[in-house]
Specification:
Strand content: 5-15%
Mean pLDDT: 92
Low-confidence stretches: none
Helix content: 55-70%
Number of strands: 6
Strand order of the largest sheet: 1-2
């Protein structure tokens, strides 16, 4: 049987993966399909792309990651504006020990998909790299430390995504700035998606 419900979280995760792959491999159809999902997102996220109950932490976090990748791919400010709005919404889930879900828990376990707290911290750190004056990582350092501590104490096998974010932040971030829209700039843009780095940020600056 095929589940025809268009749930927001898996759609955003899939759209982001397809978008990155599309730019890396030059597949325009993948890119356009992914941007079609992004066009259904707004400041308020619901459980399904076409409406319904209020979105959960994982819905907002995956939407924010998708919006950031949309901006990194297209350079369109509307996706950066969307990321700005979604970052404010994700912040609303933050508690003293991490991001709190609808049940009052702080979900840090991968199941096996990336844990909601990992998605949220990763998204906000990426938003901070693009919007440092508006999304200040200092606000999240202490809760992230609490989340990382809980992961260490839990001794669970399924906390690798939280460790991965901590490792990426600790070992430095790669920022790639693409200037212009000529052949060299387009090649650099594509290479920025092909190049692996634990955590990177891509900016596109158009010249007059």
């Amino acid at each position: 049987a095929i589940d025809t419900n268009r749930y927001t979280h898996p759609n955003c995760v899939a759209a982001e993966a397809l978008l990155i792959s599309g730019y890396a491999l030059g597949r325009e159809k993948w890119i356009s399909s992914s941007l079609g999902v992004l066009e259904k997102l707004g400041r308020t996220v619901t459980r399904r792309l076409d409406g319904g109950r209020s979105g959960l932490l994982e819905d907002y976090a995956s939407a924010l990651n998708c919006a950031i990748s949309g901006y990194e791919g297209t350079g369109l400010t509307k996706y950066l504006d969307l990321a700005r709005s979604l970052a404010d919404q994700v912040r609303g889930f933050l508690g003293a020990e991490g991001f709190v879900d609808a049940g009052g828990d702080v979900p840090i376990l991968d199941t096996p998909e990336e844990a909601p707290n990992s998605q949220a911290f990763r998204a906000l750190f990426r938003a901070h790299l693009l919007l440092p004056d508006e999304v200040k990582w200092e606000q999240f350092q202490e809760p992230f430390g609490q989340t990382l501590g809980a992961a260490l104490i839990s001794k669970q096998e399924y906390v690798s995504s939280v460790y991965r974010i901590a490792d990426a932040i600790s070992n430095g971030v790669c920022t790639i700035t693409v200037v212009g829209n000529d052949g060299l700039a387009r090649d650099l843009h594509r290479q920025s998606f092909l190049t692996y780095y634990p955590l990177k940020s891509i900016r596109i600056l158009e010249t007059e």
